[in-house]
Specification:
By secondary structure, this protein is α/β, with parallel strands linked by helices. The chain has helices spanning 25-37, 48-57, 74-84, 99-107, 120-128, 144-158, 163-170, 174-182; strands at 17-21, 41-45, 62-66, 68-69, 72-73, 89-94, 110-115. The protein has a five-stranded parallel β-sheet, with helices on both faces. It has a two-stranded antiparallel sheet with strand order 4-5. α4 (99-107) links the parallel β6 (89-94) and β7. InterPro entries: ActR_PrrA_rreg, Bact_response_regulator, CheY-like_superfamily, Sig_transdc_resp-reg_receiver.
Length: 187
Amino acid sequence: MSGDETTGAMVEGEDTSLLIVEDDKPFLTRLARAMETRGFVVETAESVEEAVAKARAHPPAYAVVDMRLGDGNGLDVVAVIREKRNDARAIILTGYGNIATAVTAVKLGAVDYLSKPADADDVFAALTRTSGERAAPPENPMSADRVRWEHIQRVYEMCDRNVSETARRLNMHRRTLQRILAKRAPR
C-alpha cells in the first residue's frame, strides 16, 4: 500500500460490511485498517475455507478477495458471496493478472479486478464505483508482447490448462508453448 491510508472518501449507506480474503497477513492487516478508516465494518479471512464459512454465515455487502490462496481459488469465494447475496460488490486482487482470469472473475460476479500491489485508494475506488462509471484508462497500456502473452493465457485457460490442446489451437509447437508458459509475463 502506498500513501496515507487515512485519506480518502468515506463509504456511506446502510450495509458497510466488507469481507477481505488475503493470505498475506501484513497486507491483510494494513488493508483492513485502511478500509475501517473509510467507514467499512471489516471481517477478514486468510483461506478459502474460512472465507466461504464467513460468507455463508453473514454474506457481506462488499468483498476484496485474493485470487490465489493457500487452499484454493478466490473465485470460489466470490461465487459463494454472489450466490448468497446478489447485490454484493466483490473485487479480485491478484499478483498473477491475466485477461482470462479477469473475464472469469467478472462472469462470477466480481465488479473489478486489481493487480497487486493495489493501494487502499484503488481498492476503495473499485468498491464504491457506480455501475455505470468507468475506470480511468491505464497510464501505461500493455505492450504488444504482453497482449500476445495474455491471448496465449486466455486460450490456455479455455483449454482447461491442457498444453497439447492449447498448442494445437494456437497452431504452435507444444514445446514452444511450454517455454512461453514457463516464463514470467512481459510488461
